[in-house]
Amino acid sequence: MADVFVSYARADRERVRPLVKALESEGFSVWWDPEIAPGQEFDRLIAEELRRAKAAVVVWTPTSVNSRWVRGEAREAADRGILAPVRFEKADLPLDLRAIHTTDLDGWNDDAGGPVFGELARAIRHLFGDKTDGPVATTARQLAICVLPFANLSGDPEQAYFSDGISEDIITDLSKVSALYITARNTAFQFKGKSLDVPQLARQLNVSHVVEGSVRKAGNRVRITAQLIDGKGGGHIWADRWDRDLTDIFALQDEISQAIVAALKLKLLPEEKQAIEKRGTSSPEAYNLYLMARGYLESGNIGDPRREEAIIRLMRRATDLDPGYARAWALMARAQNTLAVNRGRGGDNGLAAAERAIALDPDLAEGHAHKSQVLWALGQKDEAKVESDLALKLDPDGYDANRAAANIAYEGQQFEDAIRYFAKASAGSENDFASTAMALSASQAIGDAEGANAFAKQTLERAERILAQDRGNGLAMGFGVLALATLGQADRAKEWMGRALVIDPENMVMRYNFACMTTHFLNDLDGAVELLRPVIVNEPRLLRAAKVDPDLAGLHDDPRFQAMIAEAEARFAAEPSG
User: Fold this and answer.
1) Is the dihedral of CA 64, 67, 70, 75 positive or negative?
2) Which segments of 167-220 are extended strands (E)?
3) How buried is residue 560: exposed, middle or buried, by Cβ count under 10 Å (0-12/13-18/19+)?
4) pLDDT for position 96
């Protein structure tokens, strides 16, 4: 776990190398990742290292100021109050970061000493809370643990939602122990289903221990195995197996977390034990229904209202079982809002459910994230931004918080921010092809071909995985077509599009994505207009998106497009729910 994260442009690597050496000679541990290949800068590992750092040295050069990755890392470090920027060649600093003191290194001679480098060293120590000029004190490293996703041994792939939920809750429980550092869920889940060499994994993630296990769920019984492995040698420190009724699931999770803590020879503080035992619900059945609904959310077809209908039914049952289950109310709000904006199914867009979730748990990031989306759909953009910012503050790495922030940034044409948030959201779910596809679109909007290609590859891989299980998933086909077109596979993209329009002709979200591809890549404006016509007529949310979508820029001045927009806006405004 390095103290200092160094952010820089790849072209500046040789300039940065002596800076890293000088920082290390001052007693700082440094992470600067000279080995990750180009095109992989958005890797979850980088986000994890930045999150763990006590200080971030951003190296501004005429090259790096134009890198959206460096600028994104700088903004994140500034938001956390750990930014210590340096500059070469009087690089023109980004406007939003000019207020932060920057150390000019043009007069530096590549040695650790001297007044110029001393200024940087003092700035870093100040971020550490050390106001002296002496060397940085070496502190004892926390025990660092990666909890790998527990394997689903139930014999039914659809039961994966349950094993994933168990894994996530153990990660959350152990994160409440102050003596432990726990690898973020986003990082751990990238290794789901992979055959791993534990010592190699531990070196890669810089952790001291790894937890792995399995879940077998059958009827009302569950068997869970778990083992704690030494990251250095790969030996087993502790292992156990539990066979219980599902009604004991919460007590079982507590036992597993506390057994891991005991195996590490740690003692829980009373408040830590209380925090681990605190659950969002006391009903195992409501908990299982929530995990099931999250599974639908991650892999379902957003263009099919049956997904949202199923989630709402599941969450209504969960809140009947436990009216105080805040996370169930929040998820219900999300599904209700999606139905309202995509299908015009009135009501309050889920506002009451979102507010109920927040009233039950004001610190629940999901509640604020979903309320932000409801408010945005209702046109209350300033209020939506406030809720989104609060969700990010409560859960900076969370899927819901980052997806809400990404949607707001994208519609506001703040594409660099949208890319950063979509990338974080996509890291939270291996099945989330929609976030990678939106990051692809935003990358194209700012002319970043390398980033667009990288996100296209991710999108295609994820869409193909979903389509192998559900050939009728129109959203996966829609975004898959966008990825194929980006990667230059035009014939395959057309074949996918033709097949999808036959299988799912009423899927308006899919048709919208096809119109974007037809406009942007094929320059077929006639075809795009025909694809869009039923979308504009029926979908208020997509009508709003079409007016600002960079992928439809070629249509924005087309009289046919403008006439469709004007006619639809007039009709929606005249409707009682408009």
Assistant:
1) positive
2) 180-182, 209-218
3) middle
4) 64
The whole-angstrom separation of Cα 381 and Cα 366 is 18
* H or E, element range at 221: strand 221-230
d(CA 244, CA 262): 21
Residues in the chain: 578
| Beta bridge pairs of residue 242 | 224
Please report where in the chains the tokens 């153990």 appear, as a residue: 170
Please answer whether residues 394 and 401 qualify as being in contact, where contact means their C-beta atoms are separated by less than 8 angstroms. yes
Q: Rounded CA gap, 361 and 391, in Å? A: 12
* Distance separating alpha carbons of residues 298 and 291, to the nearest angstrom: 11
What distance in Å separates the CA atoms of residue 138 and residue 130, rounded to the nearest whole number?
A: 12
Q: Of 43, 49, 102, 61, nearest to 78 (Cα)?
A: 102
CA nearest to 290, candidates 343, 327, 340: 327
338 Cβ neighbours under 8 A, 6+ residues apart: 302, 308
> What pLDDT was estimated at residue 359?
96
Rounded Cα–Cα distance for residues 170 and 167 (Å): 5
Please tell me the pTM assigned to this model. 0.68
- Which pLDDT value is given to residue 578? 44
* Tokens matching residue 204: 């890669």
Distance CA 48, CA 52 (A): 6
Among candidate residues 120, 93, 96, the one with its CA nearest the CA of residue 19? 120
Beginning with the edge strand found earlier in the chain, give each strand of the sheet holding 4-7 in spatial order: 30-31, 4-7, 55-60, 86-87, 103-104
Torsion of CA 118, 124, 128, 130, to 10 degrees: 20
Strand residues in 67-196 grouped as ranges (E):
86-87, 103-104, 143-147, 151-152, 180-182
In angstroms, rounded to a whole number, what is the distance separating the alpha carbons of residues 278 and 258? 13
- Of 27, 221, 17, 8, give the one whose Cα is nearest residue 124: 27
Are 392 and 405 spatial neighbours (Cβ–Cβ below 8 Å)? Answer: yes
In angstroms, rounded to a whole number, what is the distance separating the alpha carbons of residues 169 and 220?
Answer: 20
- Report how far Cα 333 is from the mean position of its chain's Cα atoms: 20
- Token look-up 């945005």 returns 376
Distance CA 197, CA 486 (A): 35
* Chain CA centroid to CA 550, Å: 23
pLDDT of 440 reads 93
In Å, what is the CA distance from 86 to each residue of 16, 38, 83, 256, 280?
11, 23, 10, 46, 45
- Both tokens of 122, joined, read 């003092």
Q: What is the DSSP letter of 521?
A: T
* Block residue for tokens 């503050």: 393
What does pLDDT average to in each consecutive run of 10 residues of the chain (578 residues)?
A: 84 87 83 57 65 88 85 81 88 75 79 65 77 39 81 82 88 84 78 85 84 90 92 89 88 89 83 77 91 77 77 95 96 90 73 96 93 92 94 85 93 89 80 89 89 91 85 83 91 88 82 86 88 83 83 91 89 65
- pLDDT attached to residue 575: 66
Residue 555 has a CB neighbour count (10 Å cut-off) of: 23
